[in-house]
Write a structure and sequence with these properties.
The protein has 205 residues and is of the alpha+beta class. The protein is 49% helix and 8% strand.
């Protein structure tokens, strides 16, 4: 019986973050697929684990539950090379994770959801166009930062990179072109070359 249980949809970037870190750290776990489009995250059983009705959710060995992807990353990465000990570097990890949640995910990830999960319905086209402006603005910030360094915090691969990698590497599925962003593309390649790297497709249900 494995130590952890993860409830999620592997094609969700927020769930993939958790799968990727657990692979990098070789953490054994059970993965329970949740079909969000069929309401499996809205059942009473699931809401008892996360009253917000969203994936991922991490089940701990002692029976407790933890939700919100970046909180889960912090919990799993404690005392590992993926979470800096230095207070300033640690704060920078948080800085980029907040950036991911407030300036990146609402535009790039949500655009991908509209296209991939909802089939890009006609009544969402104006919404997609509005999100595109701010999505590219987030990519501009990333491109500028990566001009000076290989990773987002202190030249080391950290959970800040994992948070941003999750939806950036599939940004094209949300209608975003990474062609003008050579620094971002080089960073994506560095992440994917880690020997313990895994892809979404490896765990497709």
């Amino acid at each position: 019986m494995s130590q952890f249980k993860v409830y999620g949809d592997i094609y969700s970037g927020n769930c993939y973050k958790v799968k990727l870190l657990m692979s990098l750290l070789e953490i054994e776990h059970d993965w329970v697929h949740i079909d969000i489009l069929n309401g499996e995250s809205r059942t009473n059983e699931f809401l008892a684990r996360n009253p917000n009705g969203r994936v991922p959710v991490l089940g701990l060995p002692d029976g407790r539950w933890l939700f919100e992807s970046n909180a889960i990353l912090h919990f799993l990465a404690k005392d590992t090379c993926f979470l800096p000990i230095d207070p300033y570097d640690h704060a920078q990890v948080l800085q980029w994770q907040f950036f991911e949640q407030y300036s990146h995910e609402p535009y790039i990830a949500t655009s991908r959801y509209i296209i991939r999960y909802l089939g890009s319905p006609p009544d969402r086209q104006a919404d997609l166009e509005a999100r595109r402006v701010w999505g590219y603005a987030a990519l501009d910030v990333m491109e500028s930062h990566l001009e000076k360094q290989d990773f987002f915090v202190d030249e080391h691969y950290s959970i800040a990179d994992i948070s941003l990698y999750a939806y950036t590497h599939v940004a094209s599925e949300g209608g975003f072109s990474l062609k003008p962003y050579s620094n971002v593309r080089n960073w994506l390649r560095r992440i994917s070359q880690h020997p313990q790297h895994v892809t979404m497709e490896q765990f497709a249900p």
